[in-house]
Specification:
This protein is mainly α. It has one domain. The chain has 9 helices and 5 strands, in the order H-E-E-E-E-E-H-H-H-H-H-H-H-H. A hairpin with a 5-residue loop joins strand 3 and strand 4. The longest helix is centred in the middle third of the chain and has 35 residues. The radius of gyration is 22 Å and the shape is elongated.
């Protein structure tokens, strides 16, 4: 329901639309003019203590009674994570699949985080879509007669809105925050995330491969080279 009184249930008011547009302008301004203020230094770890080391199990004491083997290392800088957004998204998808399919033991908090990640992805895409599509569609219909004939029709503004929403979602994707959460975990899931980041971090993933991956992931048919531990370097070469 709208936060403002419109007299109609579940119909957003003009104030809602104005608020959403204001948020879009603020995000767009931050994306365009905020890149020069991005930090180049690596973020410091919240905890530098690795815990007690067990030489028999060759692991450190972790969270929730679990142990981990891959040592902690500094989180990459925010600038670097912005350049590796595709890599981080693949890492998050792979780690989520491992967690929800119980391939590794995890804490209750980790299970909640990885289960909710898919819905966070949907929200980060649907929010800009709902902001961009209504005004763009209305303007497209208002100036329908002045638009060149090949660009007329109801599907053009919808397609353009989806494309702009994807660009907005990529530009505002909180990759540094997600990656920090995954790499700092002192659990087997943290081991998986750190090992996966060592595999994905140096790879430049072409756009056409990532675009195909999005469809493959949606239909559950991801190539084995992109899945956890696969030879993604050879796949992208």
């Amino acid at each position: 329901m709208s936060r403002y009184s419109t007299g109609i249930e579940n119909i957003p008011s003009l104030f809602d639309l104005a608020s959403a547009l204001t948020g879009f302008i603020a995000d767009f301004t931050q994306v365009v003019f905020g890149n020069t203020q991005t930090s180049f230094t690596a973020a410091a770890l919240e905890e530098t203590d690795r815990g007690n080391y067990d030489p028999v199990a060759r692991s450190w004491e972790g969270t929730g009674g679990l142990n981990y083997r891959v040592p902690l290392y500094p989180i990459p800088s925010e600038r670097h994570t912005r350049e590796r957004t595709r890599n981080i998204k693949i890492l998050m998808d792979n780690c989520r699949r491992i967690c929800v399919e119980d391939e590794l033991p995890s804490t209750k908090e980790e299970l909640q985080f990885w289960t909710a990640y898919r819905f966070m992805k949907y929200q980060m895409y649907l929010t800009p879509t709902c902001v961009i599509m209504p005004p763009l569609y209305v303007m497209w219909r208002m100036f329908h007669d002045r638009i060149p004939r090949p660009f007329r029709g109801r599907t053009i503004p919808v397609t353009l809105s989806l494309a702009l929403a994807e660009q907005w979602a990529d530009a505002t994707y909180p990759g540094h925050q997600f990656l920090s959460t995954a790499l700092r975990a002192k659990t087997p899931m943290g081991d998986a995330a750190r090992a996966e980041w060592l595999r994905l971090q140096p790879i430049d993933i072409p756009y056409y491969i990532y675009a195909a991956y999005q469809f493959q992931h949606f239909f559950g048919n991801v190539p084995k080279e992109i899945l956890f531990g696969g030879d993604i370097a050879g796949y992208c070469s």
